[in-house]
Design goal:
With about 180 residues, this protein is an all-alpha fold. About 80% of the residues lie in helices and about 0% in strands.
């Protein structure tokens, strides 16, 4: 989760930069068109647009790289979830539906661990789908309001519920990786 938060913050900064580039370019183009006339205006706009395109492309590439890192984290989460499913299946095979008398960790049965893993993985998968959509659309959005919605959605991560942090901390406490 800490890596995810770091990537989310980095991605937000890059997305914010993309929006600022687009907005400043829109303002500059509007001002230049209003103040200039003739061929000089179109020539100046062409040079400015080349710089704008290069800067925007660099930011989009950076944002894609961040998304790629987030995808890798989501894949790791899915693998961990599959591992927990395997442990649960092994537990069920060896000890039946009720599970072992002594839990694998402090107090939680293996089944509960698996259920929490599934919940967390699903939250992050949904959030990743949203971020993928934002990455595809943010550089092509012309509406200022829509760009602000995309930025807000990236920052506030609507599919990762408040309980995700609590569930993660609970898992760490349960396994002994976090001490009270």
């Amino acid at each position: 989760m800490l890596k995810w938060e770091t990537f989310n913050d980095t991605g937000f900064l890059i997305a914010n930069k993309i929006v600022n580039i687009k907005l400043s370019n829109q303002r500059e183009n509007q001002i230049k068109l209003e103040t200039s006339e003739g061929e000089d205006a179109s020539c100046n706009l062409g040079k400015a647009n080349m710089q704008y395109d290069k800067e925007l492309e660099e930011c989009c590439t950076e944002l894609l790289n961040v998304l790629g890192k987030m995808i890798k984290l989501a894949v790791k989460m899915e693998k961990l979830c599959a591992t927990m499913k395997g442990i649960l299946d092994l537990d069920t095979f060896q000890y039946g539906e009720t599970g072992r008398e002594m839990p694998l960790f402090h107090t939680w049965p293996t089944k509960y661990f698996y259920e929490i893993s599934v919940q967390l993985t699903e939250m992050y998968k949904k959030e990743l789908q949203l971020k993928s959509l934002i990455v595809q659309e943010i550089a092509h959005t012309s509406s200022c309001d829509l760009m602000m919605v995309e930025l807000s959605a990236w920052l506030y991560q609507p599919y990762i519920e408040e309980k995700a942090r609590l569930l993660n901390e609970s898992m760490l406490l349960e396994t002994g990786h976090r001490i009270l």
